[in-house]
Here is the input.
Amino acid sequence: MRVRRTSQLIAAAAGLGLAVTATAGPAEARNINTPKKLERAVTTEAVMDHLEEFQAIADANDDNRAAGSSGYEASGRYVEETLQEAGYETERQYFDFVYDRVDEFSLAEVSPQERDLEAVPMSYSPSTPEGGVTAELATPSGAATACEEADYEGADLSGQIALISRGTCSFAQKALTAGAVGAEGAIIYNNTDGDLNGTLGGPEPDAAPVVGTTQALGEDLLQELAQGPVEVSFNLQKTTEQRETFNVIAETEQGRDDNVVMLGAHLDGVEEGAAINDNGSGSAGILETAVQLAKSKKLNNKVRFAWWGAEELGLIGSTHYVEDLAANDPDALDDIATYLNFDMIGSPNYQIGVYDADESTYEAPVTVPEGSEATEDVFTDYFDKSGQAWVDTPFSGRSDYAAFIDNGVPASGLFTGADGVKTEEEVELFGGTAGVTYDPNYHSPADDLDNVNAEALGIMSDAIAWATMSLAQDTSAVNGERSAGKSGKPHPQGPLTMQGEEDAA
Ligand SMILES: [Zn+2]
Here is the structure.
């Protein structure tokens, strides 16, 4: 894509009899000060180079870049070094999080039949004793959801494993209640179709060690239990401890510091693999945008970039950043004109998705701050203008923009899709395969360099670059701020959004 555009440029220049230097790209020579120039300067190749680095980092660090791992540290260092080479000062913002990992897990029926039982340990579950326990299953005497100790009245759970239905109260409450009545463990079965992958929400040392399983298996075990005792062996060994990780933050020297455009992408991945699409892709997209933006000699508004830590553990890094500002420097939070989020921009079976801030397709389950619609428009106007099809994706708050919108900062972002299923309509717009998820390798070990669609990555990186420069020069549509100062006086050059129209080399 970029290569083609460059050669068109060279051909055009040659046709005009202009000298073309082979060594420096057109971006190098010029002051990058318009959306179009920044869009050109951010190439798919350069973004892909960053992804190759993230892959190499994963390869060298036990195949993952998760929060608190050596792979995360190396990813952070790569981002910092790349930014520093481009002229930025970088900052690490440290924060604590609970590191929670399953080291060993097995669950099997011992009698009356021998079989493995499929289940998923709940996050923050305590460990069983070392070597595990072998115990009989027991059900509550009262409500199957077993939220209260009274639900076990008359039943002796000590030394047994409680078999409990999902529903009525939190998993944590069920596991704590089971622990309080002396159960050695708890199996919570779903009350609807599908696996049950739950969390206690935080460490609960007094809870019974707990797993989630399907409704089908739960009912199967209940039936067996109605015939006689069912013995189960359960071993769960965990590492659950407080650890420290960090966000990487950098901002342009240029531009008003009281009208800041902020971009963010989470740098951590899940433990399962290299996490290249989720979210090496967003991290690489904003990194290359930052590198090229540094060549700009004049920006009206400051642009701040963040690479968030521990997103996969519950949006922890971005929440820490925003809550820290809200508590200690509310003016600085106020100074953020808008926040752009990029979490997965190279999905193999992609959609070109824009967070639906104006709720034209999806009703948002969150409050959408004023200014978000105008932020969405920056992306959608760009796509419309360049003839690129796009679709709405829910403004759900389920990534690092959550803390921003909770605190009234406008937001939007781009998303090529995760575990949603591509429709026939989207295939007509973007190609790919209907009936298959956007990223079949979402959160799996196969989310590696081969799991990235370069075309999607290129389209989205261009959009990031365009939107960044457009807002760096003018956020008046978002918050009424003109570039000249807080007075709201128009910039001497007038609104700058149309600057991208020039420069048709
Ligand atoms: Zn993600």
